[in-house]
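Recall that a protein's primary structure is simply its ordered list of amino acids. Everything else, from secondary elements to tertiary packing, is in principle encoded there. The following example makes that idea concrete.
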Amino acid sequence: MKIRPIILAWTLIATCLLSLQPLSAHAKPVSPDFVELAKRLTPSVVNIRTAKTIRPRAQAGRRVPSNPFGDNFFDFFAPFFGDQPQQQQRPRKQQALGSGFIISTDGYILTNNHVVEGADEVVVKLSEGRELKAEIKGQDRKLDLALLKLDDGKNGFPAVDLGDSDALQVGEWVMAIGNPFGLSQTVTAGIVSAKGRVIGSGPYDDFIQTDASINPGNSGGPLFNAQGQVVGINTAIIANGQGIGFAIPINVAKSVVEQLKTTGHVIRGYLGVNFQALDASLVKALKLPSDKGALVTNVAKGSPAEQAGLQAGDVIVSFDGKPVSHDTDLPKIVAATPINKKAKLLIYRDGKRKELSIIVSRAKDDQAGGPATQKPGDHASIGISVQELTPELAQQLGLNEPHGVVVSDVKPGSPADDAGLVRGDLVLEVNGRKIDSLNSFADAVSSVKKGELVRLLLRRPDGTFGYVAIKAE
């Protein structure tokens, strides 16, 4: 009879301890106070209304809105700009809506370039209700950023704090404020779903992915962390997607704001190469220790890369002391390198590590009758037929310095077919050997044994360059 109270006491103690466990387990990831954050941050977020003059074309037709993110990504302004028939005979005004945020008390605002591009007039509405005209101080199409300036004769605008997007972690809480569908000062929240997303918008893709609701009209608005600091600029969503939005990391914007403010544009470093990612076949064919790096597919004439001795087939693994883990890392590193700086390049060539020196130059704004035929050569070992590249054919393909052979047929189901070769591809190299005739191509391919990898350097019909590795039949 005396045992029962003891058992009961221990049972109560155990129950209390178990009930305390969830409290300690959930003590760390407490969600931010979104109510307080919204009150504090909303005054720094602005709505942007733009107007542009649309002049009629000579022929009636339909205007296709330009989309910097490709067909799979929704243009924030599509519902506002529309896809309008060009039937009017007189110029007309076209309006659009977007978002932005004040970054300094003297009235500088960051937003997306596609929010204000081509606008004749930009009007900013503050959270208090005032509407002020804004001047476009700088634009960067490649990063899709624009800097605006308010000027009402006085300072004291409510400005945001800019955070550190590099320190952002997947799973962190984030909050977006913007003007979706014209619904001003809308607040949504979610988490960071991923970092470093490449969505095909340009050479400097490095987006934060979030499931915080982002909709048309949020474009150019801020993405805040739990401390109320801006960590991203809301930019794109996937058409018909839910819970998938993309924001430009604020560190990317911070690196160019001063240039936009002082010069109106961004000056970037230039290397002068085309490149691609590595896959398992290319790693094996190039005798590389890993798949990290950017594989050079073409070197521009007279470029810093050519002067440094860089060659097609080289694999860049480090630039100016910064690792190139993925091919998408290279343009961002080069672009951020000061002009005329002497930088070190670490590469792999023919399976051996090598160091080169390069002087970075300034990038330009934009860095890109039937032919007589001979009897095609049939090379069943990789499944393609080729023909000589004549001057007439080279002219049709738009080649200034023609060399190589043209793929005239691809055997269905062959290794070449599996690797994505198509008619019109130009074969420039086979296993590092330059190809300038049918004979040189035949010699290069005939030396390959069954089961070996054949490395081809191709110029694609769209003008791009790339390597493929094909296993010979």
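The longest helix spans residues 3-25. The chain has three domains: 33-57+70-266, 269-362, 377-471.
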